[in-house]
Amino acid sequence: QIKSHDRLGVSKLISQYSRKGALKSALALLCLIRYTTKLLHDEVTGGRVSGSNIQNGSQICRTGFQFLESCLRHKSHMVVYEAARAICFLPLLEPQDLTAAITALSHFLTSSKPATRFATMKTLATVAVSNPRAVSKCNEEFETLIGDKNRSIATLAITTLLKTGSENSVDRILRQVSGFLTQIDDEYKITVVKSLQQLCLTYPSKHRIIVGFLSNFLREEGGFEFKRSIVNGIESLIQSVPETTESSLLHLCEFIEDCEFTMLSTHILHLLGELGPETSAPARYIRFIYNRSILEN
After folding, report:
1. Number of domains within the chain
2. pTM of the entire predicted model
């Protein structure tokens, strides 16, 4: 604690104990990994790294990174996980610098301990946001985890797979997601819907399949928040991918024919009034609007 703001003191501490065999305790190594990680982050924020890679920085940066990589080969799973997680969240790293850490984490995805699988899955899901290609090598394990008994792990596996999957794998992933969504609570469904929305932005050519998939779940059982997340997702896709406008409006029209939520029906009618006249065949929406004006209070 006394040395926490002493850069030179912390660096000497790391140099002294990072040598192989200097520390026997796994818990002590965990502390040293965290000290090293904080020091590396401080080096970056302090402007002591030249170029766009942390390994091009000071001697402290190079020594610290080498120590973290050496911990990936430790016999303790705790040490390996902590080192891999630290590397994944370091700034100014190229995707290839993450390879060893992600390979180490992938081994934990088949662990018999749910806590280990969840922690690993959460770390990889976070990395996939900024480096989906680096995480894509674990796609096979993610597909296996979709059937995990722990719903939190399964949800993370699906949302990560939706970020890392290729355009050719979209159809297969959606088939797996379809069976999964019927088994989970609405809060997890909303997370999956957001990932599907991002997938459509990544692969706009798949918009018909993805919007059709989302609209199918508008007709399934689900609460207001879940249905609203789908409607909002489809609406934002209309704004981001204009090609989806006409097919999306038709899906929303079919939904309001048997919608139990007045607020959503009103919102969709407003959307029809705003976007319908700009489509190639505005008259097709008149029947749906007329039905609501006659049948609703």
Report:
1. 1
2. 0.79
Could you tell me if residue 143 is inside a domain?
Answer: no
Report residue 160's pLDDT band, with 50, 70 and 90 as the boundaries.
very high
Distance from C-alpha of 25 to C-alpha of 29, rounded to nearest angstrom = 6
| Residues 249/276, Cβ–Cβ less than 8 Å | yes
Residue 222 contacts residue 264 (beta carbons within 8 Å): no
Q: For residue 14, is it within any domain?
A: yes
Nearest to 199 by CA among 186, 215, 212, 210: 210
Could you tell me if residue 57 is left (phi over 0), alpha (psi between -120 and 50 degrees) or otherwise beta? Answer: beta
Task: Note whether residue 59 is domain-resident.
Answer: yes
Domain residues for 18?
A: 1-100
pLDDT tens digit string along 46-98? 777 766 677 666 777 888 888 899 999 999 999 999 999 999 998 888 888 89
| 167 belongs to a structural domain | no
Nearest to 161 by CA among 119, 107, 125, 206: 125
